[in-house]
Amino acid sequence: MTDALIVIDVQNDFCPGGALAVAGGDEVVPRINAMMDAYPIRVLTQDWHPAGHSSFASEHPAKAPMETVEMPYGPQVLWPDHCVQGSDGAAFHVDLRTDPADLIVRKGFRKAVDSYSAFFENDHVTPTGLEGYLRSRGAERLVVVGLATDFCVNYSALDAARLGFDVTVELSACRGIDLGGSLDAALEGLRAAGVRLEGG
Ligand code: VGL
Ligand code: ZN
């Protein structure tokens, strides 16, 4: 079995002081750094939005951050402007070990569609290319860590399980946003999808 570590969105905007700060988001950094050497394949994802992205509440005059709108591809939570391409908020946390990464996958770069998952955009059909990369590298078992547990980690792990990978989420190296019970709902959905939850 070839294992891959998939590190989701450990970026300044999701850490304390960032535009979409996740409580304790920076606490995952030393944990992920310590895990990295144990994996023969290491992938980082980077949320990477153009200015004026359709997931930004600022693009929807009648809406506030954390409200939901109906997009052509389904319901979409609206966020504060975050992870704008090239901004300091979009940069990886300064202490995250990025040199050992084999691949950095950017996502959310199309203005009209958000992308929580490392595998598919929120329309659930447009691929990021990560599946092909992992399969051609022979990866079978994925360990998913990072930010945020209930959004990008959740959707990445669900897609990975649906694609047939053996998936574990290491919760000690994740932190969640928890919007109206979204954290418990995510954990329940992950369990139901056959994703192993460890370190909780
Ligand atoms: C994320 C909301 C918006 C995440 C990204 O990384 O979980 N959440 N963009
Ligand atoms: Zn985003």
UniProtKB/TrEMBL annotation:
Pathway: Cofactor biosynthesis; nicotinate biosynthesis; nicotinate from nicotinamide: step 1/1. Residues 4-195 form the Isochorismatase-like domain. The keyword Ligase does not apply. It holds the Pfam family Isochorismatase. It is an enzyme of class 3 (hydrolase). One of its GO terms (molecular function) is nicotinamidase activity. InterPro entries: Isochorismatase-like_dom, Isochorismatase-like_sf, Isochorismatase_Nicotinamidase. It comes from the Bacteria. Keywords: Hydrolase, Metal-binding, Pyridine nucleotide biosynthesis. Its EC number is 3.5.1.19. Belongs to the isochorismatase family. NCBIfam families: PRK11609.1 (NF008623). This is nicotinamidase. It comes from Tropicimonas omnivorans. The gene is pncA.
